[in-house]
Every structure is written in structure tokens, then in C-alpha cells.
Amino acid sequence: MVNNNCYINLMAKKMFEFTLEMLAGMEAQVPDAYAELIRKTGLRTEELTDWSRKAEHMRIPLDPASGVYEEHDGYFDLPHIDIHSIPVTDFPLYSKWSYDRLYRYDMIKQPDVLMFMFLYNGEFSLEAKRANYEYYEPRCIHESSLSPSIHSILASEIGKEEEAYQFFEFATRLDLDNYNRNTREGLHTTSIAAAWMNIVYGFGGMRSDGERLSFRPTLPQRWTSYSFQVMYEGVLLGVTVNSEHVGFKALQGGTASILVYGQEIKVDAAGTVLPLGEGMLA
Questions:
Q1: Which side of the chain, N or C, has fewer Cβ within a 10 Å radius?
Q2: Domain range 62-202, CATH class
Q3: What are the Glycoside hydrolase family 65 central catalytic domain coordinates in residue numbering (predicted)?
């Protein structure tokens, strides 16, 4: 229904780039296996050239003046609607409004742009994340169950602590409180899983898209502490956060090197305790 959806185009660009990188690495490191792959698939050199060209020239709609990525071609020209003016009885909109009415305005169901900023977090500046969050948050109706959690994670990163917590509550209580008025259709299991992401990627500040696992923990004002575990390079890491300290411990599997507030630390069975980062008590 639209041209050049920003999320789809960026993910297609990443797919081409990743595929080309993996094939180049395979050719250099395991040439026999690469030759067998070419034999089995019939992959041609001109196909690789075509993929590279498509990745290089992929259209990623962006307003350079504001730093806001455009949802799709023509999105910025759509009439604005105040989503808070929509009667609650109209929700869920997908069962009450026709498609031509749904897509008539600059209202979005889910945060496409914020999603790819989360997935490829390290490639975007804090200013870019803030500009896009502040533009798209007032336009999102969260009829996707993944939407509140992604908003919570980005809100936490850009320092909007209260909004981060409110979206966390939205994600965790989506079905309990029937926020979207459609729990009768089934549980939103993605939102339940994303509630875990809220804690780990949001308040815990974990990022897994870089060369090394990193953390920038915060503590919501309503909480006294929280903890979680993640498996990283064969090491089970235990993470604890309270109002004063952040603790990391290798529960099994040896040692692991991670980044905490930008500082490299080695985590072993003895554990490491650091002060909660300056200004990190949300």
C-alpha cells in the first residue's frame, strides 16, 4: 500500500550487506566449502554485484533537517490526527475502521523506525534516537503488542524515565488490563516476552548489536533492585542492580569480557561490583 517503507528497505539493505560479508568471509577462510556452495546453488558473480548495487543504492527516507526517518514515501505529507482524540470505544481500530481510513493519516500502528534503531542501536546517535522517538511516539497507537516495549527501551535510553516505566507497565499489563480491548482474541505472547526485554535492554541498558555485549543499567524510582541472567559466549552472566551498585557474576562457563558504562570489565566467578552509573537512578 506504500512505497519505500523505511524499515523494510533498511532491513533489506542489511540483509544484502550481511550476505555479502558472510560469503566473502567464507571464500577467504573456507574456500572449498565456498566452492561447494557455489556448485550447489549456482550462485553467479553477477548476482553478487547486483546485491551490492542494491544495498548501496537502497532508498532510506530521511529528512536531513530534522534527522527524522520517514515511515515511507509521502508519510510526512499525510494529514495529522491527534490519536488521543479517538474515542476509546473505537479500539481496536483494525476491527472498527476501514483500511482507507486507517492509512489516511500519519497515525502508525507500531514503531517501525524505532524498531530498527533498537536492532542496530550502535549505528544511531542519541540525538537521532531522541528526534525520532519524539516525532513518532505521539503518532503511535500501539496496536502491535511489541510497540510499548520498544518505546520503553528507547525512552529509557534517551532519559525519559517516567515514560519508560509507563510503557513498561503497558507492555506487562497489556492483557491483564485489556489495554487494546482485544484480549478476548488471545494472549499477546510477544508483549509478555518483550516485558523481559524491557528489563534487560531497557532498564538494564544491555546492547547486543556491537562487537561486545554492553550494559548501561538504570534503576526505576519505584524499584529497590532487580536482577536477570543472560548467556554470552558460553558464559551464564548474573546481573544485579540496586540503588547503589551494579553487580556482574559468571554463574557458569568461565569468564567473559563485557562493557559497562563504556568501561571494559572481565567477569568471572568471583564477580565484579561497580557503582550505579552517575545519574542512573531514574
A1: N
A2: mainly alpha
A3: 2-197
The number of angstroms, rounded, from the C-alpha of 252 to the middle of its chain's C-alpha atoms is 28
**Confidence (pTM):** 0.91
Whole-angstrom Cα distance, residue 168 to residue 204? 13
In this predicted model, what pLDDT tens digit does every residue of 101-147 receive, in sequence order?
Answer: 988 999 999 999 999 999 999 999 999 999 999 999 999 999 888 89
CATH 3.90.360.10 holds for 207-275: no
Nearest to 213 by CA among 232, 188, 200, 185: 232
Q: Cα separations (Å) of 13 from 43, 109, 113, 222?
A: 19, 23, 15, 41
Residue ranges with strand state E in 68-174: 68-69
Does the CA dihedral 117-121-124-128 come out positive or negative? positive
Supply the pLDDT for residue 173.
Answer: 81
